[in-house]
Design brief:
The protein has 339 residues and is α+β, with helices and mostly antiparallel strands. Among the domains are: 145 residues, ApbE-like domains (T-fold), CATH 3.10.520; 91 residues, T-fold, CATH 1.10.3980.10. The protein contains eight helices and 17 strands. The radius of gyration is 20 Å and the shape is globular.
Length: 339
């Protein structure tokens, strides 16, 4: 492998894209939400003014926070977490997202679990804030013996709280928000766009030069702290991309090794640092987001096999020695042009 060469990812059988009118400018909007940044680049020949679009986007993101944030104590999710045993009325969007999350939990054998809020807090990655050291084994065991994804029951506009179940949708809510913004833009007459919320992206259409929205995947770091692998550049037309990795969020264990913020719901511990990053392409950003987490937990051995068997487009970056080794699933390799 030549680490300094460029890998292009080009969608196969991409839907036809309309060349935007020359007099329709590229509008760029940005802000903060969900504890991170958001940015949108768009071309709207007949759509509303930029200020109107921005208000619409902000309204969508505020709504997602009000329903799914585990940091906002007034959100539907927090209200559910704090509720006693029984049915809890919630916004239908929370039921829809949780239904997708629960299905992925079943498909992955529990490697993905939206009912991981207690563990997230115990390890210092949740609203209570950082912790000085890993939680004691007794607390991890107690949390593992509590409610999990299999205890989630979903009805029309309500969720069953078995008592003590704590949801955390951090690994799927941002992707869902990206999809919501993308749908809004299409409804407003936007013919080409790139939506980015904290590194989860979805694109559609082409620009005035007939080029797609190109997005570079951040290069993961090896144990020596140096970035490795090829530069991968993706044409986001009819595609979304999400990455799960430990380059930015982690804690250091007693042995000095990096402990990822991605937790294995089956063991209660952070995933080993063998996987530096997993990048997933999918039509829906919500699923790309959740799948990237599930594959990170499944690990460098089982993850690629599980993804390949399901036709998932994924890039695994595995730490080997001081450097990294990249593994592409067949579905992604079919889209790749190696420079």
């Amino acid at each position: 492998m030549k680490p300094n060469t460029l890998r292009l990812i080009l969608p196969l059988d991409a839907p036809e894209a309309m060349l935007p009118p020359a007099d329709a400018p590229v509008v760029r909007l940005s802000g903060t939400a969900m504890g991170t940044y958001w940015s949108v680049a768009l071309i709207a020949p007949t759509g509303p003014e930029a200020l109107v679009l921005r208000r619409g986007i902000v309204g969508i993101l505020d709504r997602v926070v009000a329903v799914m944030s585990h940091w906002d104590r007034a959100s539907d999710l927090c209200r559910y977490n704090d509720s006693p045993r029984g049915w809890v009325p919630v916004d239908p969007s929370l039921c829809a997202v949780l239904s997708a999350a629960r299905q992925l939990s079943a498909d992955s054998g529990g490697a993905y679990d939206p009912a991981i809020g207690g563990l997230v807090d115990a390890w210092g990655f949740g609203p209570p804030g950082p912790v000085a050291c890993p939680p004691p084994d007794e607390r991890i065991s107690a949390l593992l013996s509590g409610p999990c994804w299999a205890d989630i029951r979903i009805d029309a506009g309500r969720l069953w709280q078995p008592g003590g179940l704590r949801l955390d949708l951090s690994s799927i809510a941002k992707g869902h928000a990206v999809d919501c913004v993308a749908r809004y833009l299409m409804e407003q007459g936007v013919v080409s766009y790139l939506v980015d919320i904290g590194g989860e992206l979805r694109g559609w259409g082409i620009r005035h030069d007939a080029a797609p929205w190109w997005v570079d995947v951040d290069r993961a770091t090896g144990r020596d702290g140096r970035p490795g692998g090829r530069l991968t550049r993706i044409a986001l037309h009819g595609l979304s991309v999400a990455t799960s990795g430990d380059s930015n969020r982690f804690m250091t264990g007693p042995d000095g090794r990096r402990l990822s913020h991605s937790l294995d719901p089956r063991t209660g511990w952070p995933v080993p640092d063998d996987l530096a990053a997993v990048t997933v392409l999918h039509a829906d950003c919500m699923m790309a987001d959740a799948l990237a987490t599930a594959l990170t937990v499944l690990g460098p051995e089982e993850g690629p096999k599980w993804a390949a068997a399901r036709g998932i487009m994924a890039l695994f970056v595995r730490r080997v020695g001081a450097g990294v080794v990249e593994i592409m699933t067949p579905a992604l390799a079919a889209l790749a042009e190696e420079g």
